[in-house]
Amino acid sequence: MLGAVSGLVAGGAALAVAASVSAWVRPQAGPVVAVGGAAVDRTPAPVKDWAVRHFGTDDKLVLQLGILAVLVLFALTLGVLALRNRRAGAAGVLLIGVVGAIAAVSRPDSSGPVDAVPSLAGALAGALLLHFLIGRLRRPAHPAGAATASGPGAGDGAGWDRRGFVIAATAAAAASAGVGALGRSVGGARGQDAAASRRDVVLPAPASPAAPVPRGAQVRVAGTSPFTTPNSAFYRVDTALVVPKVNARTWRLRVHGKGVARPVTLSFADLLRRELIERDITLTCVSNEVGGPYVGNARWIGVRLADLLAECGVKPPTRGGPADQLVARSVDGMTIGSPVEDLMDGRDALLALGMNGAPLPFEHGFPVRMVVPGLYGYVSACKWIQDIELTTFDAYDAYWVKRGWARKAPIKTQCRIDTPKPFARPRTGTVMVAGVAWAQHRGIDKVEVRVDDGPWQQATLAAEDTRDTWRQWSFPWQATKGGHILTVRATDRTGQVQTEHRTRTIPDGASGRHSVVVTVD
After folding, report:
1. 443-487: per-residue pLDDT in tens?
2. Peptide bond just before 367 cis, omega within 30 deg
3. What pTM, to 2 d.p., does this model score?
4. CA distance 19 to 25
5. From residue 406, how far is each of 304, 326, 376, 409, 428 by CA, in Å?
């Protein structure tokens, strides 16, 4: 028991030291974040999809808590081992530190060997402390001829230095708390610089403002999603265990690669001085199940990406350009590949600087991210972007493509019932069924509702903002007593009717029709 306590105290100290050192190096180099990131990179796509489906945006928290739980078990085990063999216990702590160091330096965004320092420093501190604490549990020297204890209790409570152990363990725990607090203070100070740079941003008036959202775009039915999704409620699905805090003053974007006649490096101020456009665009995550929550609509302001590429001499493949893929790289090492043809076909593909009238939130990519209507986020919506390389799909596979997802993924026509909720119990009479439909860059032409196995009945569409935004709809259902299944389908402007064939999100987005079961009282 006392050996386990020693291991736990030593493990806590190791994590505290590692966290404090990582605040000086960079937060992403901490062992928990580094090992977590490595686990995310190596997790099969179906498992990741399962995690997003069951834990939603809390999947990262669940992963980190799981890693901490495993580390606690290791600490307890190594403490017990050290009671029998101090060197072996300390060596075990050092070995865990080496694993963390390897994970840190092998990350795509690694800064090099320096990223190994937090894990190694933490492991060294933990190993030394474990060695010391176990020494306090060893039987003190006895005078010649004095009685000695033997048997199972020897070395674990029989003749051990109780006072010395309690003082040492308490002091170590207090010191660990202090070191951890210091690390948080240093990390917070660094984050404050980035936060200050965001507070200083004044978004210029766009040269091409978005038109006002039409009256009637929001249906007046309780329970329906707001037409414009607030920043705080906008979905977030990415692999960043620590949200990058990028200082806009020092941020740079490099544009280079195949077919780039005039490579360029731009600062945030350079982008602000360019002609800005403002557009309402609905984004959708490829991990969104049929009827899922990972879709949101916002008003974005930014630089038209096609104009910037053209200035650099880039041409789409249909005009003789040698590159058919644009690879965007994030500060956290994420790579996202987008078809050059789509980015330059006239749609409002943006390097976005603002969201709903404010600079981008850190969680959504500050200072700059990509926004491309009509493409799922994993092939278009690079957050915290710092590098744009023109290449080909044959020459390079981006992050998600390497993990089994499709290279190209236009958003599928989808429709969702927001109200009534599944298993609701409305009363007989008129029940308003309402929700949202989306087919970005094509537009929604029709939404239909079916009750049980009855005929399809046309819903009333709300006013359309643009073809790049979702469209709300409503349907007055004359509900009768008993259990019912409500199903919805949409038809886009190309005439394509939403398929009833159910598919998983992998490899290019889920398909099928959303339905809810209700019981009318």
Report:
1. 999 999 999 999 999 999 999 999 999 999 999 999 999 999 999
2. yes
3. 0.84
4. 10
5. 26, 15, 11, 7, 46
